[in-house]
Structures are given as C-alpha cells and as structure tokens.
Design a protein that fits this description.
By secondary structure, the chain is α+β, with helices and mostly antiparallel strands. Helix content is 32%, strand content 30%. Belongs to the small heat shock protein (HSP20) family.
Amino acid sequence: MEGGPTHFYDEIEPFCRWRRTENIDILELHLPSGLKKEHLKIHINNNGILTITGTCPVDQTESMRFKKETKVAKNCRINEIRAKFSKGVLYVTMPRTSPIATGPSVALKGATSQTLDPKADDNMTNVAKCASEFHNKFGSLKQRLWRKTVVEGVAALVVVASALVGVVKAYQYFMASPV
C-alpha cells in the first residue's frame, strides 16, 4: 500500500475556568505550550453556542487538537464578545446587558409602604454571597472532574460514595449509643 505517512491527532482537554463579575463573563482556557494565536478559531452559531477549536503540529506525523463548546448566556451582547491570547491563556470576554440576579425577587402584596429591617437585608445579602460562593466552588469542582478520564472519574465517585457511607454509619452509631 503506497502513500505518505499517516498523521495522528492527540485530542486534549484544556483546563477551563469561568470568572463572573456583575456585567461580564470571562472564560479562561489554559492551553498547552506550542499553541499559538494562529492555531485558534472561535465561532458562535445562531443557537448561541460558542465553539473554540485549536490544532497545533507536534512533529511531522502528529498534531494536538481540542474543541470546547459552551452555551453563551441569554443576556450576553454577542456582537461585543472579545478574545485575547496571552502567555498560553485564551481569555474570552462576554459582556452582559444586565447583571444576573443573585437572589430571588420578592413582591409585596397589599402593602403601600413598609419598614424593612436592615438585619434582614444583610441576611439576604449573606445568603446571596453564600449561594454564589457555593456555586463558584461547586462549578470549579465540576470542571476539574470533567477533565479527568473515565477511570479517574469512577475512582473519584467511589471515594465520594465511601465518604458518604462513612458519614451515614457514624451518624447511625452516635444516634444508637446511649448518652
């Protein structure tokens, strides 16, 4: 069988991190060394899916490549999305038209005026901060787990399940023991 050398592609999954501010979402893709600006393509389709792809030659017969897709927020100003590649990190900045609400809005029925307790307002702020912090930490954990291979993911799931069983058993032990 005649022909040139076969070209192989090494599929990679770059580390991604979201940073959210009041009116901007920033997606950071940490790309491997050797990948240059010319190797990257960014596209957004009519359904609001942002696709980032990259291909970089490693040697004569091998290249590395990746593809990252993410849904853009509904309140994102699509025409103002910008990307910057610096020191191996691609920053995709997505401005929003209005900030995302941090907590539920509550409508008061039948009251024309009401004195609000400032401590209650502080409590709502604390709840919103706590929810935001939980979302950030959980989102980071979720992103790290998605980067792992199937075997590592199953192993992590087994560890979490074992820890959960241990907590349940400890709870049962303490509830059953006399005080």
